[in-house]
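Aim 2 progress. For isochorismate synthase, the working sequence is reproduced below.
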Amino acid sequence: MNANNNGIPGFLERAIAASGETLATLAPGEVISLAIDLPGSTLARCQGFSGDCRWVSPPTGRAFYAAGKAVEGSRDALDRLLSQAGVWRRIGGAFALPLAFFTLPPATAKQDLSFFVPRVLFRREGDAWSVILSAGHDGRSPQEIAGDWLTLADSILSPAGLGGEARIEGSEATPDETTWKARVAETSAAIRHGRFDKAVLARRLALRLAEPVDPNRLVDRLAAYNAGSNIFSLPHGGGHVVAASPERLAVKKGRDILSDGLAGTARNAGAAPVDDAAESALFASAKERSEHAIVVDAIAADLEDFCETLERPSAPGFMHLSRVTHLWTPLSGRLKPGVGLLDVAERLHPTPAVSGFPRETALAWLNELGEERDGLYSGVAGWIDADGDGEAAVVLRTAFFAGREASLWAGAGIMAQSDPAAEWMETEMKLATMLDLFADK
Ligand SMILES: C=C(O[C@@H]1C=C(C(=O)O)C=C[C@H]1O)C(=O)O
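Predicted structure tokens for this construct:
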């Protein structure tokens, strides 16, 4: 066992042994989650975590470190788990509700929601730590399940692997700069002809790395520079999606719901915390303000259907990030009884911040231009607990890593008066969030 574990494995072994009889009753279709509050601050001294899934949210003091999949599936299966306590049996743990991770595809794709419940998940809420061990019915004996939990727990509590130096050997932009700028001009012309109001054009930067990198290390480094964002790494399509997302599509706690209207971008040079001139120009720009208003109006219209009350600030504020500043309008409401986080996320996604407006016309236009977003860029990633509370983030400032290949994406909201060179610069600044991971190598 790992030297940094501070007696956690022994503690887990005893807790698991006490639940052995319940494990033996696991029936087909059921999931059992054993939630154990961990003693004191032993985990705070841990020198890094591993695993194949993590979610870190510095502003809330929340972090999840997870490994394995106890069960996975689509929205129906997740609804069944969430709605029937008898199907997702929870044992122990004062506050440590079990949880699932879920994703929605990129704005331009049409797949459904998918989810998984990790086998082992360490959960931090401020100073409180717990571990949630989950198992689906797969024919294994209680002893085998227990052994697997302990092995995975031990692997998570090991510092992240070295994983090579993140040095870039080569890169390729698709489409190239000239083609992308021409697309921007074409899009603005289509808007002036009245086809739609806004479209979010994106582009890909493919990197070839000298060696594979450990996504866990990337998350740690992103957290150091993007402390206001949700930073995560999720297993996806044979690799990992890593992101530092500034945009919360939906956050639900009890019946309170929150959604970020985020659109309109200026540079944030990084030398000073805030670039005042760029910020004032952003606020004063008719183009940026209407691009922003389209997003806020669309989110508000969708939330109205779900909410008893909805609050919406009359003017946007600013969200300052490591490389850019955005116009930001947080909307908050009280949900009607029975409305779930997944209902809200599925309705809002994709917002005009990542697709355009009206949604279907803008998406048809992107399709015509041949934009095929990969990884989870402009999709959604989130977590939901057994009470139905959780968070859905828009997958932005992101890259998909598989072996030595990385695929980075960024986009910009195109309006009638867009300047192709300025929009290209905006995508460069957005890409820099992920490129900064490699800059000092
Ligand atoms: C599309 C992206 O970001 C979105 C688009 C923005 C804009 O057009 O101003 C700002 C924030 C995000 O909602 C991206 O990061 O790729």
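The mean pLDDT is 91. This observation will guide construct design in the next reporting period.
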